[in-house]
């Protein structure tokens, strides 16, 4: 199979959108990513997958700390900014545990790098969660190469 067919198949899996951030020498670095998942409850671990050609790859290895901000449906421009798809604009950050996070995200998850594993042309960075902050709202989603805005379905017990 060719790369495009593989990418199209992977695009059939709807995901949320995150921005991964870190800071080195007072310079904030960030990238949009949808390759994120929870790994363990005890200890509390998450993982992000980063292409070894991405600028963020070296930063993650240097700093030892990072944050994952889960974006709301009002933050499409923020996602595009950190994906390099939009003109640079001023970004307002909050700070938690010495790490910059995206202001008004649905969740900000602050991590220490726990481990990393090279897998193909990416590295899985496993983060041990040291702090988190939650907000209300609906998630920004990604499906078939396009952003989506999905309202959460509320279930009621009968």
Automatic annotation (TrEMBL):
InterPro entries documented for this protein: Flavin_Rdtase-like_dom (IPR002563), NADH-dep_flavin_reductase (IPR050268), Split_barrel_FMN-bd (IPR012349)
Any Gene Ontology biological process: pyrimidine nucleobase catabolic process
SMART domains, per the entry: Flavin_Reduct
Record domain Flavin reductase like: where: 10-149
Pfam family, one: Flavin_Reduct
Coiled coil location: none
Oxidoreductase is among the record's keywords: yes
Organism: Scopulibacillus darangshiensis
One term of GO molecular function: riboflavin reductase (NADPH) activity
SUPFAM superfamilies per UniProt: FMN-binding split barrel
Protein name stated in the entry: Flavin reductase (DIM6/NTAB) family NADH-FMN oxidoreductase RutF
Key words, A-Z: Oxidoreductase
Keyword presence, Oxidoreductase: yes
């Amino acid at each position: 199979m060719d790369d495009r067919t593989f990418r199209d198949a992977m695009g059939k899996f709807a995901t949320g959108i995150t921005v991964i951030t870190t800071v080195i020498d007072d310079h904030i670095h960030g990238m949009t990513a949808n390759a994120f998942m929870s790994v363990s409850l005890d200890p509390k671990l998450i993982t992000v997958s980063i292409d070894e050609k991405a600028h963020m790859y070296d930063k993650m290895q240097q700093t030892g700390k990072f944050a994952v901000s889960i974006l709301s449906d009002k933050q499409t421009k923020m996602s595009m900014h950190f994906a390099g798809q939009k003109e640079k604009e001023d970004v307002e950050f909050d700070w938690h545990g010495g790490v910059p996070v995206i202001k008004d995200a649905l969740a900000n998850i602050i991590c220490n790098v726990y481990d990393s594993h090279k897998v193909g042309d990416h590295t899985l960075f496993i983060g041990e969660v040291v702090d988190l902050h939650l907000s209300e709202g609906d998630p920004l989603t990604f499906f078939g190469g396009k952003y989506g805005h999905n309202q959460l379905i509320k279930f009621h017990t009968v």
